[in-house]
Amino acid sequence: MMPGPPLLSIDLNAGYTNRPSALRRVSLEIHHGEILGLVGESGSGKSTIALAVMNLLGYKGGRASGKVLFRGRNLLNEPESRMRELRGRDIALVLQSPSGSLNPALPLRAQLSEAWRAHARGSKAEQRAAVERAMRDVSLPNDEEFLRRYPAQISLGQAQRVLIAMATMHSPALLVADEPTSALDVITQAEILKLIVQLNQGMGTAVLYISHDLVSVASICHRVAILYGGEIVECGTPDQVLTCPSHPYTRQLVSCVPWIKAAVPPRREEARISGPMVGAMANSLFAPASLIPGHIQ
Ligand SMILES: Nc1ncnc2c1ncn2[C@@H]1O[C@H](COP(=O)(O)OP(=O)(O)OP(=O)(O)O)[C@@H](O)[C@H]1O
Ligand SMILES: [Mg+2]
């Protein structure tokens, strides 16, 4: 197991007025620098977990009880003012729909500058430098022409990169990515996943990676949790969970992707400890996994 206390440890019940038990005793841990995959069918409660971790469930009319311990503090008990300090600086969220998450009326530079000013003080020159660095970190152009564009003037994949740049410009300890690639084509999906792996390695950002896509989860995650009907039914390394599934739902899931074994890095858990190896492994596995016939939807 990983040494030291976990970065995030949750033990949750959560629900909505008309669905009070959307999550039942969901218990998960994410360690520093770890990518934890969360897989489950539609409606199983994945986004409810993401929102509960951000302490944002109230905005959807939901309620959570129990613990969301982040660096030892229960976020469910933190006042909104404290959560605003944490969100975007220590914990960041990236959602499925890049076009819906950017402000259509503001140029990219203004949106990135706003994200920087939310948690940093400094001169205009420092702000410009931070914005340009953030764009470079996600492999986007950082020249004046590009930064003056509006969201409608860039591609969906570029928009998702901008959102990731905004989410990670303060080097958060934890990134919650709720189906960050499902609105994108297969090649762009692979690029965004590679970017998530790079940020994980470069900044040491831990990631809660929520996805329907078993192949991408197998390729980039150190551990995988399977959510079924609001309960975690299985959690372990991709090797354990995806090549020897124990729960009937996981078995069914895996049987739909017979080539999954090819996407699971061997002994990923051990490799994780020596960082650079993971990079090489993720890079080499990435393209083949995403181009496996049948994966293209
Ligand atoms: N605002 C809401 N009010 C009432 N019920 C909700 C609300 N949001 C979600 N639910 C219900 O809670 C359950 C879990 O929903 P959630 O959005 O967490 O699922 P999910 O696993 O993210 O699904 P998907 O893969 O489709 O995104 C579902 O039964 C859903 O209908
Ligand atoms: Mg969801």
Brief synopsis:
This protein is an alpha/beta fold and 297 residues long. It contains 14 helices and 10 strands.
**Helix content percent band:** 40-55%
CATH superfamily of the largest domain: P-loop containing nucleotide triphosphate hydrolases
The order of strands across the largest sheet is 6-7-8-3-9-10
Low-confidence stretches: 268-297
The tally of domains stands at: 2
Care to count the β-strands?
Answer: 10
User: How many helices?
Assistant: 14
Please summarize the sheet with the most strands: 6 strands, mixed
Could you say what the CATH topology of the largest domain is called?
Rossmann fold
* Ligand inventory: adenosine-5'-triphosphate, magnesium ion
N-end to C-end Cα span:
36 Å
% residues in beta strands: 15-25%
Describe the secondary-structure layout.
Layout: E1 8-16, E2 19-30, E3 35-40, H1 46-53, E4 62-70, E5 73-74, H2 80-86, E6 91-94, H3 98-101, H4 108-117, H5 124-137, H6 144-147, H7 156-168, E7 174-178, H8 186-203, E8 206-211, H9 214-220, E9 223-228, E10 231-236, H10 238-243, H11 248-255, H12 260-263, H13 268-273, H14 275-291
Parallel strand pairs: 3-8, 3-9, 6-7, 7-8
Antiparallel strand pairs: 1-2, 1-4, 4-5, 9-10
Helix pairs in contact: 4-5, 4-7, 7-8, 8-14, 9-14
Residues 46-47, 178 line the site of magnesium ion.
Explain the overall architecture:
42% of the residues lie in helices and 22% in strands. The protein has a six-stranded mixed beta sheet with strand order 6-7-8-3-9-10, with helices on both faces. It has a four-stranded antiparallel beta sheet with strand order 2-1-4-5, covered by helices on one side. The protein has 297 residues and is of the alpha/beta class. The protein has helices at residues 46-53, 80-86, 98-101, 108-117, 124-137, 144-147, 156-168, 186-203, 214-220, 238-243, 248-255, 260-263, 268-273, 275-291; strands at residues 8-16, 19-30, 35-40, 62-70, 73-74, 91-94, 174-178, 206-211, 223-228, 231-236. Helix 4 (108-117) packs across helix 5 (124-137) and helix 9 runs antiparallel to helix 14. The longest helix has 18 residues, at 186-203. The chain has two domains: 8-90 and 172-291, P-loop containing nucleotide triphosphate hydrolases (Rossmann fold); 103-169. Bound molecules: adenosine-5'-triphosphate and magnesium ion. Adenosine-5'-triphosphate binds next to strand 2 and helix 1.
